């Protein structure tokens, strides 16, 4: 898979940030599926003919947290192997360890990263 055909599901409930991430990813040639809630992301995955190559997940959503979202992903064998990158406002060692145990490939603090570097990290997560 070339980077230009990568499909990214972005699960972020902050509308302005969701649109900024979408625009940046599209500028980098990615196909973007925007989900303003965990529930919407699960609905999209349920109805999807083609699953995303990677999920960009905000830990704190209005309707669920990252652990709850990952628990949903693990209930479906088709979704269980989609790589997930968490981008959050907070990261305790316990939270990061729990998310890694649930299969999250990368956990990043928003405040410590620029959008450009996050896109590169996302590509690295997909490549494994």
From TrEMBL:
Record bears the keyword Membrane: no
Keyword Cytoplasm belongs to the record: no
Keywords annotated in UniProt: Phosphoprotein
4-aspartylphosphate: residues bearing it: 58
Residues of the Response regulatory domain: 7-125
Protein name: Response regulatory domain-containing protein
Organism field: Candidatus Amesbacteria bacterium RIFOXYB1_FULL_44_23
Pfam family membership, one: Response_reg
InterPro entries given in the database record: Bact_response_regulator, CheY-like_superfamily, Sig_transdc_resp-reg_receiver
GO biological process: phosphorelay signal transduction system
